[in-house]
Amino acid sequence: MQNKFIPLSVPNIKGNELKYVTNAIKTEWVSTAGADIKTFEENFAKYLNVPYSCAVQSGTAGLHLCLRHFGISQGDIVLVPSLTFIATVNPVIYQNAEPVFFDCDDNMCLDPVQVEKYLSEECSFDGEKTFEKNSKKQVKAVMPVHIFGDTCDMDKIMQLAEKYKLIVIEDATESLGTKFISENYKGKYTGTAGHAGVFSFNGNKIITTGGGGMVVSNDEFCIKHIKYLSQQAKDDDVYFINNEVGYNYRMTNIQAALGIAQLEQLDSFIEIKKNNHKLYGKLLKNSKGVEFVNFHAADYANYWFYSLKIKSGDISVRDKFIKYMSENKVQVRPLWKLNHTQKPFLHFKKTDCSNAEKFYKQIVNIPCSSNLSEEDVERVCSLISNFDFGGK
Ligand SMILES: Cc1ncc(COP(=O)(O)O)c(C=O)c1O
After folding, report:
1. CATH fold of 17-264, please?
2. 25-75: per-residue pLDDT in tens?
3. Any ligand 1 atom below 6 A from CB of 58
4. Ligand 1 pocket, mutate which of 8, 60, 147 (most atoms under 8 A from CB)
């Protein structure tokens, strides 16, 4: 028992998954048509209290479809955080558009202050469109990412988007079930404030369909068009007439069957994750040299990923700690390499990302699966307490 491997974040499949998937298989609806896809879309939209939703193959596919729908294309500028998984940024490149990288705030989410500085100092607004003064390229969209299940300052981001007429595509892939805390959107679910919101059901997410994603919007045409694009933009089922270039991005019925069962358990997963987070907080309260990070959204967060902050910011201590945990069969992970330092993006514009750079050296994510036992949490905490992080 001592040496059991404790993974970082894995699926929890103990509800009606087998029953619903078995039904999909028995009825032979296994591919991109079938009643479960519609049911999953409807249940998901109902949960979030949004009118429209489209189930897709992945969060990445969902983000790509949004950019495509909103007409982001060659040479357009899209504002993105540097501190995020690369899958936020890759779809910008698929569209031959250009990311500009921004720093994060104290909650590791896109910093609206930096975005405002860039828009007011380096761009001009002609009453309808915003252009970067130097390059003359149009700034078309911003992609806030609700990192680890916390929330961006959506009031500020939406105010800026309104002022500069930008499209807002929320990357809510990590924040299903998290609600906003900022004044104008308080109590509404992340992913529902912008022009479109995208969720992921990858294996490490709070609910999973194996792989999969969902796009939601308050705009009927947006979702209708995204659904159409996700099915090869087929206009005619008999003669296969296509008037646009589409993608094979639609979710399958088997994935949707899994999704329906997982969604039934979402609130209980959040509850478990919240309680495990509380237990970690209690057990790590007096640890030396590290701090267990609280969610800025507090009771409104989904508690997806847990972060430990190494106070000294010494990256060699971080790496020694990762090695030590791995030797003790506990999976932990540093932050993603910051996007403005990733090889494919080195030639794109970046603003001062010093806050993100500081977090990069300090943060390590620790096990947070919804099937983590109290015993697991205790073992992880005891390992943490026995490690010398230096400092007080
Ligand atoms: C911030 C972020 N954006 C995008 C994605 C992409 O989602 P998917 O893996 O479903 O393509 C993920 C998750 O993997 C993510 O964490």
Report:
1. Aspartate Aminotransferase; domain 2 (3.40.640)
2. 999 999 999 999 999 999 999 999 999 999 999 999 999 999 999 999 999
3. yes
4. 60
Beta pairing partners, 197: 170, 216
Q: Is the pTM of this model over 0.85?
A: yes
Give pLDDT tens digits for 302-361. 999 999 999 999 999 999 999 999 999 999 999 999 999 999 999 999 999 999 999 999
* Fold for the domain defined by 266-385: Aspartate Aminotransferase, domain 1 (3.90.1150)
- Listed in sequence order, the DSSP H helices in the chain are 17-26, 35-48, 59-69, 90-94, 112-122, 154-164, 220-230, 253-264, 266-283, 315-327, 354-362, 374-385
Domain ranges of the chain: 17-264, 266-385
User: What's the residue count for the chain?
Assistant: 392
Ligand 1 binding pocket mutation candidate from 80, 85, 198, 307 (most atoms within 8 A of CB): 85
